[in-house]
Amino acid sequence: MPRIVAAVARAAAAAEPEAAVLGSLDLMVRRLNWYDHGSALAESLRQLPAPRDRLHRLGRRYAMRGEHPNAVRLGLALLGGFGSERDEDLFRLFGTDPMFCRTTAEALSRCHPAAERALFALARRSTGWSRVTMVEALTGGTDPEIKEWLIRDACTGDVLDSYFVLAAARTGDLAGVLSRPTLDEQTLGGAGRMLVALSDVDGPGASLSSYEGAPRALAHYLRHRTTGTTTVQALLQFISINRYFEGARAAWLDEHGLTEVASRYAGVVGMPESRRLVTEALASPDPSAFHAAIWSARALGLPLRETLLRRVETEPLNSTYWYLLIDDCPADAIGQVVAAAERLLPLAELRSGPTLATGVGGEYAVDQCLDLIVCRLPAHPGHGIPLLETALQNRTARNRRMAAGALAAWPPGSVPSSARAVLRRAAAVEPVDDVRDRMLGVLARPGP
Hints:
Helix content: 55-70%
Largest sheet: none
Radius of gyration: 27 Å
Distance between the termini: 63 Å
Number of helices: 28
Low-confidence stretches: none
Number of strands: 0
Structural class: mainly alpha
């Protein structure tokens, strides 16, 4: 790392940096593990004695023209030390990119005179990991508008909410907001999403037991939601929080005075009115209500299959529907679900041939629908042969691996000759070693 700092200093000291110096710097930066050393490097760069204007110019040069992600990060780090609000164009550009958002947030915090507001603007525009980064960067602040936004809008219902929700709840004073006499629906809905994220027992972040304001927040949320008309979206939040209570230790509930509160949450979830609300919402044309209804119905054990089979006819690429149809599907229903998938999914399009693609990203939405079904077929020998044959010829390595794995899990002699023929052709062109080995392993077993 000291060599990188020295190379930056040499490049900045010259009005026109030599190509050899820039080439050497580029090579060193490429080799750097930025996530381990980036922050320390940025701090070291700030101590450079070279003229600020040249360091600033070098920063913009790398941010705008860097050919390697680390070169762009180097540029952003230099702007953090020697830039200003004049570089907001680059901060806006890179702040919503998951690859560069963390370096951008650090740079903004160092150089922008109104860093908190600039970060706030990025947080409102961000999604996914960049949103996580920007919300984390806002925590600990005192700006009233930002604190209100953290409660109302920071949590979107995404699984990534749990990474930042504890810090956001503390900064925004979730318990204090919920203790107000009345709340508008947007604030109440946002507060509910925060409580759901804190109740995510399978999530990667902190839970309700880590939030010191949890007892007060839970009691006041209950008060707000039981004094008016309950929507199916609010009921789903109740169900999610109640799931946390069901898994919590009785000692924790007693210690925080939550035994009665937990009992009242369970009471709301178990009311006949709640089941009726879900049943009515399953016929709703409103996508938000229907989405909440299907997850509520699953939690309450209400029948879903026929409803989902009707919906998937008009939305065949909705991965949520396929997941709920295939997950824990009983043996007497698998034929119906697989037949729908064979008829509705674009199988010819999915047989595009093998690549090294992992299947991650929005452009693989169709492949992911196939993925959801194929990964459950090991438990259902003899079902879904056209789907498995399609997956063996799919562009994603994951689908090909799972299809071969499903056939390997079936009893010897149960793989039909048509599937064995597809396996032979697929193995001959398979570019991934372990997938090819799995295919050949199936072919080595006795056939029909």
